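G., before I forget:
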Amino acid sequence: MAAKKKAKKKVAKKKVAKKKAKKKVAKKKVGKKKAKKKASKPKVAPKNAFYAQSGGVTAVINASAAGVIEAARAAKGKIGKVYAGRNGIIGALTEDLIDTSKESASTIKGLRHTPSGAFGSCRFKLKSLEANKREYERLIEVFKAHNIGYFFYNGGGDSADTCYKVSQLSKEMGYPIQAIHVPKTVDNDLPITDNCPGFGSVAKYVAVSTREASFDVASMAKTSTKVFIVEVMGRHAGWIAAAGGLASTKDTPIPIVILFPEVEFNEEKFLAKVKENVEKHGYCSVVVSEGVHYPDGKFLAETGLKDAFGHSQLGGAATVISGMIQNKLKLKNHWAVADYLQRAARHIASKTDVDMAYAMGKAAVQFALKGHNSVMPTVDRLSNKPFKWKVGMADLSKVANVEKMMPKNFITPDGFGITQACRDYMEPLIKGEDAPPYKDGMPSYVRIKGVAVPKKCPKFEL
Amino acid sequence: MAAKKKAKKKVAKKKVAKKKAKKKVAKKKVGKKKAKKKASKPKVAPKNAFYAQSGGVTAVINASAAGVIEAARAAKGKIGKVYAGRNGIIGALTEDLIDTSKESASTIKGLRHTPSGAFGSCRFKLKSLEANKREYERLIEVFKAHNIGYFFYNGGGDSADTCYKVSQLSKEMGYPIQAIHVPKTVDNDLPITDNCPGFGSVAKYVAVSTREASFDVASMAKTSTKVFIVEVMGRHAGWIAAAGGLASTKDTPIPIVILFPEVEFNEEKFLAKVKENVEKHGYCSVVVSEGVHYPDGKFLAETGLKDAFGHSQLGGAATVISGMIQNKLKLKNHWAVADYLQRAARHIASKTDVDMAYAMGKAAVQFALKGHNSVMPTVDRLSNKPFKWKVGMADLSKVANVEKMMPKNFITPDGFGITQACRDYMEPLIKGEDAPPYKDGMPSYVRIKGVAVPKKCPKFEL
């Protein structure tokens, strides 16, 4: 089950009662189905499922894939095969489907500890049904050809929107499809769910790395580097940058200045804060979000390039900050840009995050089996101390195109730090270690065979 | 003991015999000392030791510190207190000494799993005895005042040179001091020793991170990022960059292009290689050393700044490479700069490296007790498969100012990869995990109390 161990025990009793009730209902249903099956076997062949990964990948998105596939395998007779889109939704459009039934149980189990998107992801956003009917018709063509009745889409805000549109296909185009979105994004910007799987692990990576590099710069500061800067992801929301603040605790205080995209960059105030820290502590660490911008909205790290969704491609805020500190404060500094390292770092993943990612995948299948459409499993937080959570459910209409910003009370009044409210929220999410297996000093990450499902439809040009 | 478990068993029997012989000698010595003590107690107070950390710190230099301090504590009666220089050799010059006897056993034990230089490091090179007699005289003044007879200096090439100079003090200036260098450097460029503690862990970090980010870019490549670039340390030698090659194994092949400082950068050949990989595999990873340079010697990442040793301060080779790939190949790419994250990453340290770092510290004390001066403990490799090593000893005169380059046969003929010889050398060094203890999701790194030894000498201006 999804919930943490401690939570489990208390909730367990209630659930047992509910489950028993459900089981009784289930048995009756099964009985009916069996009767039907006997009467007309070929017609009730269970629907297959389509699963795809979307957008930037994470350290734990494959754990969600494992959750989906293992739950579907466990629901034998109710769900047929799980076909994964090679490179996300593009795999559906081009009928490039991977037959996950050809993957061994140990490979699927191994996905739980493997970073990246094992089936390939993509940055490809479907437009509205009106604007791009051709693509939706194609999806239906492929779904029909492969008897696909379940659509599990594993992604962030943009893919929640796509998933929502697909969920509308039944109504608009008369094809029965249950579309369930599986939340994933290091940006942690999906609404309703307490957090997005992928975030806890990137937060842990940033917190641990900031602590480690801060120890490093502290030992060099007397004669050499006095400021260490690390640039982290987060285009519009400072969730990841905030995680850098977790590096500093009561036991292990560290002077850290965080630059959030939520706070307009003020060079003068920033440099004063760094100077103050260096004078007081001898050194200072800076965690800068890639999304930090000036009051006029211009990113510090503007490159002028845009991605497929029309977002500006960023990179290099750290170098800008480094130059300021060098030129204005005359302080020697070092800078790092974590980029993909942060979101791929499965070796230092949060166990809480891995558990949640798996639970979201599993819950998606369970929701589908219960007949739900156009929904997304969520993490519902029940309490902070002890940390308890359960799987909830959100309507996709309320998820699509809504970006969750950090609450204002997570940022200290000076704009450079995190509050206790932020700690209370984030600390449970980085808890627990879940090291992958190692072979000869290297983590053993799995790769799928990726056997293609034979094509049945005409070719389709993207 | 220093040796790996497998090595231990075979060597153990021989050692037992030797040890027994030693013990007998030791007992006799103790007997003599005790007799002396009774006769003239104040004169035979054991000499204190000075320990200092130098240059860029590593994930395991504190493990060497733990080795020194625990071995010195175990040699009670033979070595007095261990005084650590606050911020390296500067602590000796300014008489800013830390009394390590005030640190609890658990703190010293905790140093084994704590990255950075717990006592503070520095970039400060002593000139020759002739050029800077004032500083050497000051060292003697401080050593005399605190009854220091042992000098343990934990660093790389520059500090081996300083240590060598200090070892000459006895002869030149008539003060008895035994100077032992404890090898440490992520650059792995000290001669004689098989490797330098600190390198195995940075190598593991780079190998693991490159594997993880390569999995990431592979899953994005269809519609988005096709090339991932990570910049790693290594000013003159490509040891660390080479470790990126370990990300690719027979089980888990990855197309990786490595840019070594040993190979003059050729833009055309490099871009052709990247293009070839992307065409063949769909993606490509690039590991670029900060020290990569053009045929005329100019670094790709030249910033114009220099450090205290007169070395150019580098940073940004990755951005240069990124621009080339974007502009010339029109391939979307992402880049990371690992900087301090790589050398501070104790959470993913190599167990082999941690064991070696500790063993070097311990051996330094043992050498001192045997009366050695002007030496450095080394890692002597006995065999690759199974990996066996023992502690050896090198003359500092042969270590100082000698930079070990990578053997030419470690780099593939095309200049972009590593050979089997390189793998055979490096793979044992990244073996084994040695996770630090965690508290609430964060590694528990220790900090020293750092109690100052009361000053006895006049002030000294650096």
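Chain A touches chain B through 84 residues (CB under 8 Å). The mean pLDDT of chain A is 90.

More on Monday.
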